[in-house]
Design a protein that fits this description.
There is one protein chain. This protein has 198 residues and is of the alpha+beta class. The protein folds into 2 domains: 131 residues, Pleckstrin-homology domain (PH domain)/Phosphotyrosine-binding domain (PTB) (PH-domain like); 51 residues. 38% of the residues lie in helices and 28% in strands. The chain has 4 helices and 11 strands. The strands form 3 sheets. Strands 7-6-5-10-11 form a 5-stranded mixed beta sheet, covered by helices on one side. A 4-stranded antiparallel beta sheet has the order 1-2-3-4, with helices on one face. Helix 3 packs antiparallel against helix 4. It is elongated and about 70 Å long.
């Protein structure tokens, strides 16, 4: 990875978001030797050399379909979560795509330099992903069978309704499963499937 200029490094060295409407802000700062974090009154510091694993994933929710998450595991600290969107009000979330991308890239650069043995993972854990894929396939086959059965019975309105739901289910679930396929990546080549669009 190329070294950023001091001005660029300073601009991407801090990030904050609100994970829930009523929750405290989660704040992160990249210092010389580690990441400082604060969640309300609780705070801490993780040296880069103590970071064992980072995982990037695609995590949409009902209010934000383009939401991404970076999770960090370090020695002696709870798992840290860095999300690409933040709650603004009871009914609104804002996307922080540019700030999130810049912060996550700089975090990877510093971790890979200080902790070469750190593991970089993407997507869901295999223990969740593969059962989810089986369930997705089963539900998809069941919905397709319902559409066929409705057409055979001549209930075209019912078939159209189930067909529309089936199409929406396929679109949402396929996108989620495609982006969250488990894997590993290099710190200098972040996977685009689990990053906000440029």
């Amino acid at each position: 990875m190329t070294e950023p200029t001091p001005e660029v490094a300073q601009s991407v060295a801090a990030y904050a978001y609100r994970p829930t409407v009523m929750g405290a802000m989660r704040e992160f700062k990249l210092s010389e030797d580690g990441i400082d974090w604060a969640v309300g009154a609780v705070s801490g510091h993780v040296p880069y050399r103590n970071i064992r694993r980072l995982r990037m994933s695609y995590r949409p929710n009902s209010m934000q379909s383009h939401r991404f998450l970076t999770e960090l595991w370090g020695e002696g600290v709870p798992r840290l979560k860095i999300a690409s969107s933040s709650w603004k009000s009871m009914v609104e979330q804002e996307r922080l795509d540019r700030a999130y991308s810049a912060f996550v890239r700089e975090l990877h650069r510093r971790v890979s330099k200080a902790a070469p043995s750190a593991c970089f993972e993407k997507g869901q854990t295999p223990f969740l992903y593969w059962p989810s894929l089986v369930i997705f396939t089963g539900v998809g086959l069941g919905l397709a069978a319902l559409v066929v059965r409705a057409l055979q019975a001549g209930t075209y309105a019912g078939a159209a309704f189930i067909g529309a739901f089936f199409a929406f289910y396929l679109w949402q679930s396929t996108n989620f499963l495609r982006r969250n396929r488990p894997g590993r990546y290099a710190a200098d080549a972040l996977p685009q499937d689990v990053m906000p669009p440029p």
